[in-house]
Structure prediction request, 248 residues.
Amino acid sequence: MALTRRDVLRLGGAAAAAMLPCGAQAASNRVEEAIAQFSGGATPRDGGVVLEVPEIADNGGAVPVRVAAEGARRIALFADGNPSPGVVVFAFGSLATPAASTRIRLAGSQNVIAVAELADGTFRKTTRAIVVTAGGCG
Amino acid sequence: MARPTPRVRFPKSVTAGVPFRVRTRITHPMHTGLLHDRDGKPVPRRIINRFSVRFDGEVAISVELERAVSADPYFEFEMAVPESGELEFEWVDDDGSIYGLSKRVSVNPG
Prediction:
C-alpha cells in the first residue's frame, strides 16, 4: 500500500478516517453479543426508541445522532459495521430528560442500533441504516 | 497533546422544574488505538471514557464512551433543576486525568 494511514487521514479529513482497517471487521463485530451484554440477555422489542440520524453521512468521522425514549433509564448506541460494536451508553438520572445528542464515528455504511432500558426493566430497540460516503474506508 | 479544554453552555437563568438544554464539548483526539503514525508505529488508544453531569452532587446524566465517539466529544441533553445550584461536569481520560468544570445555574425567582 503506497499510502500510509496518516496520508489517508490527511486526504480524507483528520476525523473522517478514524477507524481503519475496514476489510474484515464486520465478521468480528459481534453486535448481537454487545446488545445482549447491555440488556442482560433480554431480547429488545423493536420500536419505541427515537433514533434520529442522517440517511447519508458525508463525513463518517462525525455523524450526528439523537436518541430518546420515554421513561428510559439508559440508552445505548451500537454500530454493526465498525471494528467494535459499542459506541456510547447514556444513563439518565431523574433530573434529566431521557434524550441525548452526540456525534459518532462510522467506518462505512452500516446499521446503527439504539437500545433503551425502560423504567419497567424491559428493553426496546430501533435500527437505522446509514450510507457513509466518506467513512473510514475512504 | 494540548490539555483538553472543556466547554459547556446552558441558559443563564432557568425556571424551576422546566427542562433546559445543556451543550458540552471537550477538545480531545479520541485516539482509537487502531491507527498508526507516519513511522508505522501504532498510536495507543486514548479516549475520554466517561462523562457525567451532577447537580449539587446528584447525577443528572452519565455517559460511557467507546472509541466510536467522535474526536472532541460533544453531548447535548436536557435537564431540569428544582432550585439554583451548581452544575458539575466531569470528563475522565484513559490516562487517568479528570477534567472538571463547575458552573452555577440560577433559577428565576417567581
